[in-house]
Amino acid sequence: MTPGARVQAAIEVLDRVIAAARNNGPPADRILSDWFRTRRYAGSKDRRAVREWVYTVIRACGEVPESGRAAMLLLARDDPALAALFDGSRHAPAPIREGEAAAQAGLAPGWLMERLAQGGVSGEAAAALLERAPLDVRVNRLREGAAPLPEGGEPVVARHGLRYPAGTAVGHSEAFRAGVIEVQDAGSQLACEAIAAWPGETVIDLCAGAGGKTLALAAAMGNSGRIVACDVDRARLSRLAPRAERAGATNIETLLLDPGREMETLSGWRERADAVLVDAPCSGTGTWRRNPESRWRLTPAQLARYVEAQARLLDLGAALVAPGGRLVFVTCSLLDEEGADQVSAFLARNAGWRAADPQLPAGEPRGEGWRLSPLRSGTDGFFIARLERIC
Fold first, then answer.
1. Does the pLDDT value for residue 124 go beyond 80?
2. Is the whole-model pTM more than 0.90?
3. How far apart are CA 79 and CA 173, in angstroms?
4. What digits encode the pLDDT tens for the residues 132-162?
5. Which listed residue (61, 207, 332, 391) is catalytic?
6. 206: pLDDT confidence band, cut at 50, 70 and 90?
7. How many helices (H) and strands (E) does the chain have?
8. Does some domain include residue 79?
9. How far apart are CA 222 and CA 82, in angstroms?
């Protein structure tokens, strides 16, 4: 592909990403994969260049752009070399018209920037949300020593975490195949450390998904005790079994829940768990580094639905905790609605509970919980609260 053809390809992909953002379609990475799958003529350098243009543009536009061309023109406005590729030659974009509008630069939609600022996230802290994400792995204690670790990893704040240079093919390493390492952001690892799961305990992972945090809990417990991994999504939960087998985790059982009727399935676990993890569905504002187009998808109404669901899941999780047990609430969000405010509301409506220090080596207090952020802790953004049921 010529340089101009690569720019036109990025424009076409961006048109699809924009449409997906407006209509709740597939994520950008899947759109890119599908686009390249039908264009075998695109070589590895072409794919790399198009992907780079697409994600650079996504990070540059705060509001959803009118079109892929308008989005690319935002970059061309300050890059003469890029603007010159709009020359109308074969497979290249048409020449830039006089006065043609470009997309507006920004970090996020205006209403969302206001919400973040209200929670103390602005300036450098907000800009850091769109930096390139690092590549972190967790060394799995259950398989430690079964294969050599990939070279180049540096320790991070998480107890068993390593950080590798971007692009390191850890997923193709002998260590990954042997279950010695799992790709997991250091912040996510710290969220698991806040649970402080001990061998022999009963732990319920209420929103387990594909089981990333479940596997970390199994390693912390040394396969002793019992972990109940729950979710309402059958497809996501089904991915846990093969991951657990690779990781050597044998104390995990899965439980598929019926949305809105979870307690009917969980009734036998009422007041029986030593610890419950509520890794609740959320806006994902703390993971924009990995999914930058997700900020185009969020609406105030959707945020309100997340907040409502989180409150319900907190109360559900609390009902499963034994006297003297603990409830750990986690969201990958930096919005107070999904963090400090959520925990304050829980404590106000639930007597017999108190907030405790999660004792993490990074981050800072936020309300009755703890906040991790790209700028201050070098991790994805998280809110973590450790709540204890008073005996």
1. yes
2. yes
3. 39
4. 999 999 999 999 889 999 999 999 999 999 9
5. 332
6. very high
7. 17, 13
8. yes
9. 54
